[in-house]
Structure formats: C-alpha cells, structure tokens
Amino acid sequence: MEAGQAKVIPFTNNRLSGRSLLIWRIAQTLVWFVGLFIFFNLFFNPTLGLLLFWNILIPVAPALLVLATGLWRNICPLATTQLMPRHFNLSLKKKMPVSLQAKLQLISVVVLFFLVPLRHAIFNTDGLATAILLMVLSTIAVTMGFIYDWKSGWCSTLCPVHPVERLYGSAAIFSFPNAHCENCVNCSIPCPDSTPNFHPGLSKKTSWHSWSGWLIAGGLPGFVWAWFHVPDQHGIGSISELISIYQIPFLGLVVSLFLFNLIKTVFTKIPEKKLILFFAAAAVSIYYWYRLPALFGFGNFDKDGVLISLVGVIPEWPITVITTITTLFFFWWLLIRKPPANSWLIRPAYLMRQVASKKSS
Questions:
Q1: What pairs with residue 134 in β-bridges?
Q2: Burial of 92 by CB count in 10 Å (0-12 exposed, 13-18 middle, 19+ buried)?
C-alpha cells in the first residue's frame, strides 16, 4: 500500500445478523409493494387510491411516529426507494456539510406547510395529482440518494415528513435495530436516528437549525387546528380560492408561534424541551381530535376525509370518548411520562478510517 493511502476498516459489531436483516428486508419489500399498489391505484383507480392513502395510511402515520418512529424509519417505502442507490453501491457517497443539512431541514418545514393546505384544493380529491406529487418527491429523494451518503440527502433533511418525526418522536418506547445503515459514517450531524430522545430544539449548530426547530415545534399545533377548519374543494379556479386555502392555516401557524414565544418569554423556568413536548402533544392530539370523527362521518365537513360513515348507525358520543382518551394518552406519553433514553434506531458501528503507514521497501 502506498504512503498516505486510506485503508477502510469496518467494525462488525452492532450489525444485524443475517436472519434479522432478512426479516427487515422482507418487511421493507412488503411495505414498498404496498406503497406501489397505492401509487398505481392513484393513477388507475383513484377512488380506491385516495381512500387508501389519505384515509388509512396518513391517519395512522402520526400515531406511528409518536409510538415507534424507528419502525417507520426502517420501513418507509420512500426511504427504501431513496436508499437503493446506496445499497447497490451506486451513490457518490458525498458528505453533506452541516450548514447545507440545516438549510434543507428548514426547507423541509416550509415545504410541509406549503403542501398540506393544497390537500384541500387538489390532493384530497385528485388521485392523479397525488400520484404526480409522490413521483416528484420520489425523484428528488432518489437523486439526492445518488449524490449524498445514506440518509443525509433526504430522510434526515429534505423529506417533508422528517420535521414531524423530529417533533413527535422524542419519547421512543425502545430502539429498533437500524435496518438500512450498514455502518455509521456520520452522514447526518446530529444523527436523528441515533441520538437519544431527539427533538427539534436539540440541535442549534446554526441559525438554520434554530429556525426550523422553532417553526415546526411552535407552529404545528395552530396550523393543524386551522387546517381542519377549511373544507375540501375541487381544484383552484382563482387567486381568491388559492388564498382561501392558505389564509386560515397560516393564521393558525402565526398565532401558534406567537403563543410559543410568549410562553417561552414569560415562563422562563419552563425548560425548552418541556415546552416543545407540550406543543408536540397538542399538535398530535388536535390532529386526532378532528381526524378520527371525520373518518367516520362526524367531521366539520361531513363529506371530507370519510373512511366509512357511521352517521345514523351510532351516536357521536363514543367518538368523542375515543378522541378524549387519545388526547389524554398523547399528553401523558409525550409530556408526563418519563421516557427512557432511547434513540429511534440503534447506531451501527462507526466506519473507521485509518491511514496506512508508509510501505517499507
């Protein structure tokens, strides 16, 4: 070996056994094909595709992120797609600078707040538009996967779901094995998968980190509450209709951010993490307070987001009892309960690089 040539020495401990890895690969493949099934139905059978995506998959997602963020990080079909270039050794494996990671994380929050109101005007009722959206996101994700190493290009930065993962996933019940990363190469700093009790306020390496954490933690509860007070419509026919789908959610976002700052300023003895967890519990509780009734026809708008209408079949009070229980549970889970120091996933062994000594003659 020539002088100065790097020798890569992978550590083998903490890696999944062959059988465990096979089980995870089967799970990832099955979930990926479920995602593909939904994707094709959005094109060719949009009624079913929209039902499966918006009224089954998406309503389950927030609870899954609260209870088992690591499970979702392992089996997310878009993550599996994004990481294919890395698994097949086709990625350039570039290391993304921390400053760029922070900027992309802020962009992901902005994209989240931009896309969600469009559900009311386009995506909730248009299977083709939803399929195109998923195709665009997948293309961006795979492109980033070809350039940057492991999850740094998408899953831990630009993915619009990742801000919600960071907010909801701060009280993991236990850590899952990492079924994607073979070795840790410090691609994301800090690593959201491997940092115990990770939350949006944990990283403040740059002002971009601070801004993205503040926006998602402080703004999401009001944004979610306001979003449920806008009805679905079929398309956007005018500028006024476009404005109408954004004005109420953005007003809720601003009010929520104001309350977050006010509480933080007035009640200085409240730890920032506690305040973030309170707003996280509020956001997910508000979501299910409105989403569960809507699934069964008892929502603010009786035809929006219905999975199966139970109006006239059962009274509304059992749904109210269930939403009250979910609210109490999420506040207990995120705010009152003392979670163990768990990360979403178990960090795999570091990939160590050593420089070989000069070859003797």
A1: none
A2: exposed
Per-domain residue ranges for the chain? 6-355
User: For 176-222, how does the pLDDT look when each residue is reduced to its tens digit (9 = 90+)?
Assistant: 999 999 888 989 888 999 989 888 877 777 889 899 999 999 999 99
Strands 176-177 and 345-346 come out as parallel
The DSSP bridge partners found for residue 354 are 7
Cβ–Cβ < 8 Å for 210, 355? no
The answer to whether 220 and 115 are in contact (CB under 8 A) is no
What angle in degrees, to the nearest 10, is found between the helix axes of 207-227 and 239-266? 120
Calpha distance 312→297 (Å, rounded): 10
Q: CA-CA distance, 72 to 56, in Å (whole number)?
A: 15
C-alpha 116/C-alpha 110 separation (Å) is 10
What pLDDT is recorded for position 111? 97
Query: Closest by alpha carbon to 215, among 276, 290, 286?
Result: 276
Mean pLDDT of the chain: 90
d(CA 89, CA 29): 19
Range of weakest confidence among 26-30, 50-54, 224-228, 241-245: 241-245
67-119 pLDDT, tens per residue? Answer: 999 999 999 999 999 999 999 999 999 999 999 999 999 999 999 999 999 99
Mean pLDDT, range 280-307, rounded to an integer: 95
